[in-house]
Amino acid sequence: MTLKKVLIVSKTFPAIGLEILKRKTEPFVVPFFEHELESLPEIKKLLKKGYDAVIWNTKHRLTRDILDLAGPQIKAISTMSSGTDHVDLDEVFKRGLLIGNTPHVLDDAVADITVGLMIAAARRFKEGIAEIMNNEWKYGVQWMLGQDIAGSTVGVVGLGGVGQAVVRRLKGFDVARFLYSGRSDKPEAKALGAERVPLEQLLRESDYVLLCCPLTRETKNLINAETLKIMKKNAVLINIGRGGIVDNDALYNALKQGQIFSAGLDVVDPEPISKDHPLLSLPNCFIIPHMGSATIETRNAMATISANNILHALEGKPMVHPVTS
Ligand SMILES: O=C(O)[C@H](O)CO
Asked: Which part of the chain is the D-isomer specific 2-hydroxyacid dehydrogenase catalytic domain (predicted)?
């Protein structure tokens, strides 16, 4: 019996996932770094070889043109991410392809990063480090004053798995109020002590605004010049969702003019941003390079799920985490 062929668009795909695939398929791991701009022609060349399934772990968007190259035998796709904004889902569904992702296993790792960003942005880590590096460490009682988490109002935009894990962590920080906004009431909110409010109220009342939602048509540029104006002057904005949720120019202006206090971003648009990007020049904008799920355990878990998504689909079973809309 010939084995099904699986293309893994991820040069450093964890061995644990590869071993799972090797048991029943013939996997091929791309031999180049998949995120680099110049890798797209190589990915396209490989896709033309007729794979039955693909693990799409690259920032290149999976579009109709690329799907056309894959041929009629392709049956299943898995991302190695929770977000699926880099896939043209309408096109995937139109073609009757099965698609899965890897949510939930990264909730804890991303929640840790979120709390880290809150502290870093609220307590001015970037400015503090710069003072040391520039030999300008000047202690004084009014020097480097930041914002407390204790007693604050924390507003979570998108109380999904990550948002909930953040609230659980912050329970130990003596937060005064948790607010959340989103499309629907979350049954978990009651136990977490979080109150659902309209986005505008959340922005108006929160000292910390945490963007924990996916990038969708509704959330694109959700944080823009208008919504930033509603936020408090001491507000700290954290984005661990996707860069596209925030309008960069508007954020730059708001931070520069002291309209809000600071921002901590794990995600930006585009990624990677160039080192000359205006946001990087701001002392009150603390940016890290999309490291939310970057722990050994989490990446292994993500690889395991994406491998099993593919195996299940090829065997006619439901994926571990199917994407349905
Ligand atoms: O969508 C995801 O899985 C995360 O952003 C990856 O870090």
From this structure: 14-323
